[in-house]
């Protein structure tokens, strides 16, 4: 990879957690955020209104992914302010780990693709909701698990991208 210029380093310092301690704190905060949002998703599943759970999941997932990106300094707006060399390094790192949402605007299509990855769980959750009490509890657990899995995977992806940037900077 190319060397970072001093302006790249300045932009990087402004947008992305630079110390290992700060990076770990951001990671822990984001994991806690994921757990809270997964709980809200589970709560929405218990409400017996058809379609509410999917709408709530999409809204919660979109907001959660954007917040995680922002906390790591990897939102589209933050990356757009960086110089092209640094932007390229971030997007290559995100692509290499297979992330669809690091550094990108979260669209409805991206959310649908993410939910389709866990589609069996979503379909099962919708059916189980109509079995009194036990079905709702199982559906809520599935909703919590699916949201937690997606959120934790995104936190880990962002962490890997920022760690890669730290590695590049330390080699210079």
- Shape category: elongated
By DSSP, the count of extended strands is: 0
Number of helices: 8
Structural class: mainly alpha
The low-confidence runs, each spanning 5 or more residues with pLDDT under 50, are 6-14
What share of residues are in beta strands?
under 5%
Overall pLDDT: 78
- Summarize the helix and strand pattern as letters: HHHHHHHH
Cα distance, first to last residue? 11 Å
Task: Name its key features.
172 residues; 8 helices; elongated; mainly alpha; single chain
Task: Explain what this protein looks like in three dimensions.
The protein has 172 residues and is an all-alpha fold. The chain has one domain (20-169). The chain is built from 8 helices and no strands. It has helices at residues 6-15, 20-46, 52-71, 76-80, 84-96, 108-117, 119-128, 134-170. Helix 2 (20-46) packs antiparallel against helix 3 (52-71) and helix 2 packs antiparallel against helix 8 (134-170).
């Amino acid at each position: 990879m190319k060397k970072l210029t001093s302006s790249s380093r300045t932009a990087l310092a402004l947008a992305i957690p630079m110390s290992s301690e700060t990076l770990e704190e951001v990671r822990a905060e984001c994991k806690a955020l994921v757990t809270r949002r997964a709980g809200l998703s589970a709560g929405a599943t218990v409400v017996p209104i058809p379609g509410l759970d999917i709408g709530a999941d999409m809204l919660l997932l979109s907001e959660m992914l954007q917040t995680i990106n922002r906390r790591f300094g990897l939102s589209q707006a933050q990356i757009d302010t960086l110089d092209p060399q640094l932007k390229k390094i971030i997007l290559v790192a995100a692509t290499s780990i297979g992330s669809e949402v690091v550094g990108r605007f979260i669209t409805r299509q991206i959310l649908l693709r993410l939910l389709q990855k866990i589609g069996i769980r979503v379909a099962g959750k919708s059916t189980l909701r109509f079995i009194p009490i036990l079905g709702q509890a199982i559906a809520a657990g599935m909703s919590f698990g699916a949201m937690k899995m997606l959120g934790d995977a995104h936190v880990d992806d962002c962490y890997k991208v920022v760690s890669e940037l730290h590695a590049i900077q330390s080699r210079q």
